[in-house]
Design brief:
This protein is of the alpha+beta class and about 475 residues long. Helix content is about 25%, strand content about 20%. The chain is built from nine helices and 16 strands. A five-stranded antiparallel sheet has the order 3-6-5-11-10, with no helix packed on it. A five-stranded mixed barrel has the order 4-7-8-13-12. A hairpin with a 2-residue loop joins β12 and β13. α7 runs antiparallel to α8.
Length: about 475
């Protein structure tokens, strides 16, 4: 049967004019026992897919158009009579192939002018697509790892790994921005106690003010009386006695100012160690043991020593004849303190005698008196000022100018594994053993053998004079 009008045969054997209609896609049927393969499509993942909706690509990217659709269109474009044998064979082919319904539905959505599905991508993974099929919407979301787990920490920019996530590199961060952010976070952290310069040891600050001013008033009255007697009677004996006494007292004060720190350290070392097992609640004790970090470890300011419980960084300047003073009390031809940073947090100490472990409450603004030795890290003068970019960066982060001054940086720290001595009050609370600051300053008493006047220890006392032991395993 030939005609210039196209016609086709129906399933019941009748021939009708016109082109055959394209076969309609059947909706995929799912049984209760079989679980469909989603192919990574979030829309088909149920409640789990809603958690990651908007963070990953929707749908499955295919490399070409649908083969079934192209076969149907190609067969439908032929003019003339289409035999029922060929139509039945193509229907049987499309019906007997397993997974044909899923193949038709793998690329849902609008098609471009080439018949391919439009690929929607956001983020750096869309760079490999063509401009016609790329659609970016909104800000770039973070790329999740291949496992789909949400990880903590900052997202670093840089090269991507095989799973599409940012590649993480280990090692110290040298950028000034990261150093500033860590310094700012340390300053704002409430768990860190920031010790001021006024908290350092000083003889005049520990000496009672009433006794000092009483002695000054007594010597002033003695000088006035001695001068009056010398002018009236002509007897210089009282004046000589007052001058000798004033010289002795002045020498004693100068000796205590010079040796006060050493005397306190000697007092701490000679104080007997207590055993935590037998220590009573509210008893002032001295405990010596190994340090382990708490929840918030510290890092030293310049050398970046990790896992510390106490850090101290001091900057000193030498003042010549025409140099600037580092502080208001800086004298010429001496080293003066220009800047000091001291931080301490809560930590644990394991007693050498009993082996018990106690929590030392030195964080959250507690009163602490540290006696930790500092060592010189770097000396800077005009000749080697530009040889240490790390030191210049450290000054710039703290808004300190270098100029042409002679500077010396000292740093001290108590690292995890160090042996320390702690003096404080024992407190037991629900089987938790703690060492807290005493309510009142503890006096050291007079040391007559060395002509040392009494001093006071305020808060928890920390003493460390050795480096960390690498053989100690923190627990």
């Amino acid at each position: 049967m030939s005609s210039r009008f196209p016609s086709h045969q129906l399933n019941n054997g009748l021939y009708v004019s016109g082109r055959p209609e394209p076969p309609k896609e059947k909706a995929p049927t799912m049984s209760s026992t079989a679980v469909p393969y989603t192919g990574g499509d979030i829309k088909k993942s149920g409640e789990l897919g809603k958690m990651f909706d908007g963070s990953r690509k929707s749908g499955q990217l295919t490399s070409g158009p649908l083969r079934t659709g192209s076969m149907s269109v190609g067969n439908a474009t032929h003019s003339g009579q289409i035999s029922s044998h060929s139509m039945n064979r193509m229907s049987n082919l499309s019906g007997n192939v397993p997974g044909s319904a899923s193949m038709k539905k793998t690329s849902s959505g609008p098609l471009n002018k080439h018949g391919e599905p439009i690929r929607k991508a956001s983020g750096p993974q869309g760079q490999g697509l063509t401009s016609a099929s790329r659609q970016n919407s909104g800000p770039l979301p973070p790329v999740l790892p291949a496992t789909g787990l949400l990880t903590s920490g900052p997202i670093l920019s840089g090269p991507l790994n095989s799973s599409g996530g940012p590649r993480k590199s280990s090692g110290p961060l040298d950028s000034s921005g990261s150093i500033k952010s860590r310094t700012t976070s340390m300053v704002k952290n409430q768990a860190v106690t920031h010790l001021s310069q006024d908290g350092s040891h000083s003889f005049f600050r520990n000496f009672p003010k009433i006794v000092f001013w009483s002695m000054v008033l007594l010597f002033v009255m003695g000088f006035i009386s001695a001068i009056f007697i010398l002018a009236a009677v002509g007897n210089p004996i009282l004046l000589i006695v007052v001058v000798v006494l004033f010289g002795i007292v002045s020498l004693a004060f100068a000796w205590n100012v010079y040796r006060s720190r050493s005397a306190v350290i000697k007092f701490i070392s000679e104080y007997p160690d207590a055993e935590l097992r037998t220590a009573k609640d509210g008893q002032f004790v001295k405990v010596s043991g190994v340090v382990t970090c708490g929840n918030v470890p510290l890092e030293s300011s310049f050398q970046r020593v990790p896992r510390c419980v106490y850090t101290s960084t001091s900057l000193y300047e030498y003042r010549g004849w025409d140099s600037k003073a580092a502080n208001p009390t800086h004298q010429r031809f001496t080293w003066g303190l220009r800047s000091m940073e001291r931080h301490v947090v809560d930590f644990y100490i394991s007693d050498f005698q009993s082996g018990l472990r106690a929590l030392v409450k030195t964080g959250y603004g507690a009163r602490v008196t540290p006696y930790v030795e500092e060592s010189a890290v770097i000396d800077i003068n005009q000749s080697n000022k530009d040889m240490s970019p790390q030191f210049l960066r450290w000054l710039a982060d703290r808004n300190l100018s270098s100029d042409d001054r002679m500077m010396r940086l000292k740093e001290g720290y108590i690292k995890e594994g160090s042996s320390v001595s702690v003096m404080g009050v024992v407190q037991r609370n629900d089987n938790v053993l703690m060492i807290v600051p005493p309510p009142e300053p503890v006096p050291t008493g007079c040391q007559w053998a060395t002509c040392m006047l009494p001093a006071s220890l305020d808060g928890i006392v920390l003493r460390c004079d050795d480096s960390s032991n690498p053989d100690v395993i923190p627990v």
